[in-house]
Amino acid sequence: MSLHISAKTQAMPASAIRKLVPLSDAAKARGIHVYHLNVGAPDIKSPDCAFQAVVDKCKGMHHLSYTNSAGLIELREGMVEKYYKKIGIDIEVPELLVDVAGSEAFAVAMQVAADPGDEIIVVEPFYTNYQTFAYLNGITLKAVPTDIREGFRIPDISEFEKLVTPRTRAVLLSNPCNPSGKLFTKEEMLAIGDFCRRHELFLISDEVYREFCYTDEPHFSAMNIPGCEQNVILVDSVSKRYNLCGARIGCIVSHNRDVMTAAMKFAQSRLCPPVLGQYAAIGALDTPQSYFDEVRAEYIRRRDCAVEMLNAMPGVFAPTPYGAFYTVVELPVADAEDFARWMLTDFNRDGATTMVTPAASFYKTPGVGRNHVRIAYVLEVPALRKALTILGEGLETYRKQHADEMA
Amino acid sequence: MSLHISAKTQAMPASAIRKLVPLSDAAKARGIHVYHLNVGAPDIKSPDCAFQAVVDKCKGMHHLSYTNSAGLIELREGMVEKYYKKIGIDIEVPELLVDVAGSEAFAVAMQVAADPGDEIIVVEPFYTNYQTFAYLNGITLKAVPTDIREGFRIPDISEFEKLVTPRTRAVLLSNPCNPSGKLFTKEEMLAIGDFCRRHELFLISDEVYREFCYTDEPHFSAMNIPGCEQNVILVDSVSKRYNLCGARIGCIVSHNRDVMTAAMKFAQSRLCPPVLGQYAAIGALDTPQSYFDEVRAEYIRRRDCAVEMLNAMPGVFAPTPYGAFYTVVELPVADAEDFARWMLTDFNRDGATTMVTPAASFYKTPGVGRNHVRIAYVLEVPALRKALTILGEGLETYRKQHADEMA
């Protein structure tokens, strides 16, 4: 016996997205302006109706009690009627449970689907916290590789078949994808659905970026894969949709009643979702379509700016993302994490620098993605232009300094 | 392979506190008024300053972004300066991290202290969700028994010693205790502290009911056990203190830097605590002392009413609780869960019934507590009186119907 931190916690991976934060804090302390292309924290205005609902509820409130562990019925009914029905996802109230944002929803979904020792198939690159929660629950992620040069398109389903073992329990994906911005086509989703059905696997579909699609086709939800009703567990959130990241409100949705019964056990163990955030989410249900249209147009401008500027940098390859507000970019460096650190510690242009997220931890396959970074195009075009100009200049300087290594 | 819910989830215990909710919902649907003595959801007014802070922040807010994973610095500094310093707990800001209520704080504390296969010592009866999170993380709880007839006083430390094995990692307790209302004395805490120091164990002290103490002695926090600075992990929450259960804001506090580094990894994995709740908690820091004094006086009235009425019922034994707003009561029935169900399904007096929580699941030792219920005295005295009158009448009727079983 000794007073030590559990081995599980010691070996727990620190957040890849947040681990460079001390370096950016230090840069700021030196007076450097840091352009944040590293986190999916957009500057878009939230719909006023969200905050108005909170203000209305708080005025004259007596006390703030627990809600049902599944969330306020007003929010659950509102989501079903005012949001999901409108976008063509046909569900009943008992098939939806409010969670503490998408983070809790996918953590619960993974545990409902898989025991310690079980395996879940993901498509590479994938959101790093999937790995964190897999690790914490003794679940192994098996990764289907994709190719940045092919815009991260989903490979032939035989690549999924190769990974199946007796311990495989689910496929987990985000669509549109964080970090790649990949938008899964209807055909790709149908193929994955067929695969899940044939192998009796759950399909955990994280669709928190659903409103951020830049093709003419509507987003195709896993909830609408015919014959997959019992397989699909939908993970959703109001964080990105209404730019209410701080509300910490999401939901888990499934036609599978056993899944919902299981999810309710987890919900009860943490008593209830944040109530003030639930009020904001209720208010946000009245967001007009024009809000989404404007936000979408704005992100298309930003994406186009980002992709054009990135591909104009010597040696950089940036595929065009069709969803979310991220893109994974190949840089002409050996170690993108070293470059990202260097941008914060050693480089500035007129007192400013740009922060990006090294992408290696979005991959499971060893060595893959070491020269990739994730760019979140979450700034207005003028600021984005400056940030990318600085990134390009930094890259040039860094390459000159590291010419020997690259040779 | 087959599409089934994980064995871990299937075997996960459903919330003992919430599992009778469907029966109370059904009673209400039949037009029965249900007095809720089953949940710690008080009717006390929250301080106005909490809601005012939310209103002030929401007016004109642009968007609701993530905060630091450790919480807003304004809240962390405020808790340290305006709350903990005032009550004699001397900590620095890096020693406090905001969590999603006490629920997340103790779940994290348990995982930081113990690996799967490790053991944590608890004092019986204990908060049932400790068992849930122990189960989910493969941790075994070992229970030190107490005796309701002795007011749940902490037994000689030799009872703790008996449970120590090479896998013991921590002692976990709530003080004042949910469910028993037991308030640990300074002497009891020093003895437990000494035990933890000798065996190099963490002492996870859940003090979310700290403001609800009914003796003349001030609450003695585990944070003030001399020489235990590296052992103690404090779990706290604004839920009960300001009746902001729905805010879902708590914190984990420790002088042990390794613990805080570990807790931060968990914090990053769920991005940030609810931001609107953080605003409410910041506002609540300006709650005047008179608020706590009035609430305390009110709970003493309720407790005295409850204990007197309960002990006046034939065959009932109710010890006097000195903290929190619960008491565990011995009933003259063979199976308190059956009785609690029966109160909801088969009994009413003039269209009203009373709901209590069967206490067996607050015990780890098999068979112990089967004739115990937890009573939350969270209603104003007139309503509490009615609820307990109905409980007494129900008990009499139930005993007559079950006379054979009891004989």
Largest sheet of chain A: 7 strands, mixed
| Helix count from the secondary structure assignment of chain A | 14
Total strands of chain A: the figure is 12
Shape of chain A: globular
Whole-number average pLDDT of chain A? 95
User: What is the level-2 CATH architecture name of the largest domain in chain A?
Assistant: 3-Layer(aba) Sandwich
From the structure provided, what is the oligomeric state, counting identical versus distinct chains? homodimer
The number of domains of chain A is 2
Determine the CATH topology of the largest domain in chain A: Aspartate Aminotransferase, domain 2
Over the alpha carbons, how many angstroms does the gyration radius of chain A reach? 21 Å
Spatial order of strands in the largest sheet of chain A: 2-8-7-6-5-3-4
* CATH superfamily label of the largest domain in chain A: Type I PLP-dependent aspartate aminotransferase-like (Major domain)
H/E series of chain A, N to C? HHEHHEHEHEHEHEEEHHHEHEEEHH
| End-to-end C-alpha gap of chain A | 51 Å
Q: Largest interface, per-chain counts? A: A-B, 85 and 85 residues
| Percent in strands of chain A | 5-15%
Give unreliable regions of chain A as ranges.
none
Return the CATH class of the largest domain in chain A: Alpha Beta
Q: Structural class of the secondary elements of chain A?
A: alpha/beta
Share of helix of chain A, binned: 25-40%
Question: Could you provide a short overview of the structure?
Answer:
Two copies of one chain form a homodimer. Chain A is of the alpha/beta class and 407 residues long.
